[in-house]
Amino acid sequence: MMLTKTTIAALLASLSFVTAVPQGATSTSTSTTSSSSSSSSSSARRSSRYAASSSVPSTRPGLSSVFHGAYSGSATVTGALKASSVGTGIVVGGVPPAETTYPSDGQLHDAQPAPYVPAGGVGTNTTPIYNVQSDFDYESLALALYQEWIELDLFQYGLKTFSDSDFQDAGLTAEDRTLIEFMAEQEIGHATLISNILGAEAPQQCNYNYPFTNVREFVDFCQKLTRFGESGVYGFLGHLNSREAATLLLQSISTEARQQLIFRQFDGLFPMPVWFEVGVPQSWAWTLLAPYISSCPANQTRLAWQNFPALWILNQPNPARYNASQGFNETLGAGTNTLNSTGISGSAACFNNTGQSGNCNPAITQNRSIPLSYPGRVVNLTWDQPGKLVGPNNSYVTSSSAGTPAYVAWVSQLNVTYSALNLSSNTSGSTVQPDVETFAGDPAVNGTLFIAITDSDIFLTPFNLSLINEHVVAGPALYQAG
């Protein structure tokens, strides 16, 4: 049977969501300035979308006006959200025998519940309920919603802040600006979806403080922010109690993966230099996100995740340079370590450079013969001590339960690799970029990946990576390996 628009809308509206109640917001975020060709294109797209049936579920609006800048007040509440009882740590059990006894020989070993349906699977015989089912679910999706809200504002803010000629000078056209505008519209849908799952207390949009000063820095910040937004969700999807919510969130974050790829293309980087995308714990994503949230509305839903001390990569590879590894102290702060392109000009700049290594203009793909980084490269690091106020209204406090810093953890693709940390002080040191492969022919250290200072080289895999948290001294930081 073919479903009509009305039928599809009715099905969407009838999904078993908790109904979200927008809190104090009456319209979508401030519209952005774009060129006439961009505006006409988006108007045509919108006219088709808004012609849909009135029964189509409505979107949740963001704030009607978002403030941008640092927060100067004092928090009335500090620290992460805590329950009345807090244990001392996660107890890791042994491997249940049934987990390793399936023959895995390609044959069917149990009766089929229906034709063409093999035995097994979870949730295939239940009515889906798209609600959170535990504190873990709620806090994970609330973190994802904080991420969607900042992306909505970030994309709009960049379009509003920089002129058409600013984008053109960075090699981006009216069509490219329209694509960024559409990405902002995608975030409205993502924020609405997660808000509907969470319910009336779902976090609202906040006010933000961005580090970039030009289009090149804006694009690099976007590719790094979408990196940890995507990876932060991959890190918890498999652990959600609500498989139904996980299914919808996966369909949302798959779009964010495409956004990250596109911003890499805008950044003049090879779009997908890895075989597998990396997942990280919620506290890693929150540590990277929180510093850019200056303040939130009163009674904002708080998060339970940890904020680790900030980590700077002093010689972060700078994609704005012809030779990216030659940069030193060229980032816009810790954590994301976004490139700083100010003062890079002439033969040192890769934009419009026709030299042997190729330029870094926006493109479908760029193959730079001088790599951004390489195995054996010395990486210089410095980090904060715990106890710094960060995040919305300066209301969260950085902390660490780790011992003496001894290693740098490189978290990329399927790997958690450690390199020795050579201390030069209590809060600074260096390490050597490891030479390791995921599988033969796939360098594990590539793309936009995560590093952290740890006290131990504990063995971990993607599914239990959150066990690293108690060993994190500082970080994570995003390392621009390629």
TrEMBL record:
Pfam families assigned to the protein according to its UniProt record, in alphabetical order: Ferritin_2
Signal peptide: 1-20
Compositionally biased spans, kind Low complexity: 25-55
Lipid metabolism keyword on record: no
Stretches the record annotates as Disordered: 25-61
Keywords on record: Signal
InterPro entries in UniProt: Rds1
Protein name: Stress response protein Rds1
Lineage, top ranks: Eukaryota, Fungi, Dikarya, Ascomycota, Pezizomycotina
